[in-house]
Design a protein that fits this description.
By secondary structure, this protein is α+β, with helices and mostly antiparallel strands. It has 19 helices and 22 strands. The longest helix has 18 residues. The chain is elongated and about 90 Å long. It binds adenosine-5'-diphosphate (ADP) and magnesium ion (MG).
Length: about 625
Amino acid sequence: MADIIRLLPDNVANQIAAGEVVQRPASVVKELLENSVDADASEVQLIAQDSGKTLIQVSDNGKGMTETDARMALQRHATSKIRKAEDIFSIMTKGFRGEALASIAAVAKMQLKTRQANTELGTEIKVAANEVESQEYCQCPQGTSIKVQNLFYNIPARRNFLKSNQVELRHIIDEFERVAMAHPEVAFRFEHNGSELFNLPPSSLRQRIVNIFGKRYNEKLVPVDEETEVVRLEGFVGKPEFAKKTRGEQFFFVNHRYIRNGYLHKAVQKAFEGLLLEGSHPSYFLFMEIDPARIDVNIHPTKTEIKFEDERVIHSIIRTAVKHSLGQYNIAPSLDFEHDQQYSPPPQNKSVEAPGIYIDPNFNPFDKAPQSGGGGSSSGHTKMPSAYQGSRPTSQESRQWESLLSKIPEIPDTESQKELLESKELHAVSYLQIGKKYLLKSHGEGLMLIHQARAHQRILFEKMMRSLANQQVAAQQLLFPVQVSFNAGDYSEIVALLPSLREMGFDLDEFGQQELIVHGIPLFLENPNLEEILHRLLEESKNHSSHSKEDLQEKMAAEMAKVAALKVGTVIEPQAMAHLVDELFACENPYHSPDGRPTIVNLALGDLDKTFA
Ligand code: ADP
Ligand code: MG
């Protein structure tokens, strides 16, 4: 029989290899940015169009390539970064497999311009479908600029697999952020469809994080700093009270390479144990420096997974160091730091104060007292928060309410309670508030307990949903418009949400660089912290898997109800309790809060009898 095994032609082999290296535009971005950093550039610029589908261009002022190297760079397994197998174990560069440029050239049109400092003319090479079309001398600045056009133009199946522009842009931003964060000493700029998304000057790590994720991060970061024989660990963790519902900001870097590692992630989670509310995730930006001989970065084509020789040791170092940092800033209640460490105060700790975290198992993460006067859970005995007043629809109801509020009996003690019980206001006073949290009412022959915060959430939620259904959302104009800023990644997502937000009663527009300006808000919100609420709504939409607008609006309405509803810890007058309960029972589903937790618990006489048995 004839021999049937053949060596694959280079272009086929390259295309197959490209399948591993180049999955989407973001993979090209990653490889090109990493090459620029490896070339010791101090300035790197990324320009993309249509989320990288039509154009990705990365230019740097790094060391450039000679004429021959420029040509060689396009070959598979052509690299300047290692020479022999052992070199992999002392690798300090991002690349070393020599595959990226060959892979990209196999699946896109590519133009490369490069010049070294000591030469007058640079080299320009054009490649399409793995064939060099031309090579010429050119005038160009020192460094390298690589333009990648029409990705996957020769592989329609892969092109069709690409996701929406918004999703692909998000992936690009993720890769950009990872490289930029790993190298705060390098200036990075990113322009997409003609508008600048990032312009990051060389800076400290803290400043880089703030420049990427927004000013709000400055006060959120707690430094981590730990030096051991195995690893040098530094970076930041986010204070627990800023933990997010989405797993957005979790970054490990090893020798300035972004990596994923579920096991080490657990170490951070352990350090945060007991500090986070259920369903929220810690943020971290942790940099490890490890002797390259003790890790293997070559177990994955894109090198985001690596193998550690001392994984368990590193796990425990991370856990203790993070816990220690949280403890130092009075965040963690206790420490279990075994080895003796000298922690010098971090240089940038100006903004770090003892944070106010309350570890109350019943605390609702979304409960935040409205900023409006009169409301507020911490000020002891208060009237109904203004947020509640804001939900009143009719003026008649409103008068009723005012008159109720004008008589403000204290929570009655037993003596005066007796008097009151004998008075005409029997109905109102048949409610008692327990622990500033539950309302108690005798009910038939038993008792009914109502969770005040959840009950109010349900009421507000149904009002919101009703007005959405009737397309009559009551809105109020703000006296002073409020500007809210976002980081680039979030901004593209919130802009996509604008139509939904407007339908829900927000009057807001795009404004300047990554900012929204808010002119009006849904009526019942009453002076909310707009920054807070818009970021929450954004989180809600990121978390949201279904594509239906109605579902999303329902989620957002529930979120807003949480923010606006009266809180656990608010003292409520008996009359107001009666009103609250009446409104609750007027709801379609009085028994559950919008997120499905019980609002009412009944204790029948039989249950009480059992308790006394
Ligand atoms: P690797 O990075 O694994 O070596 P690549 O295919 O990404 O493989 O690049 C091949 C070679 O081309 C690199 O080793 C480097 O010598 C050269 N090169 C690529 N990009 C640049 C750049 N921006 N500046 C200078 N040299 C570069
Ligand atoms: Mg490379």
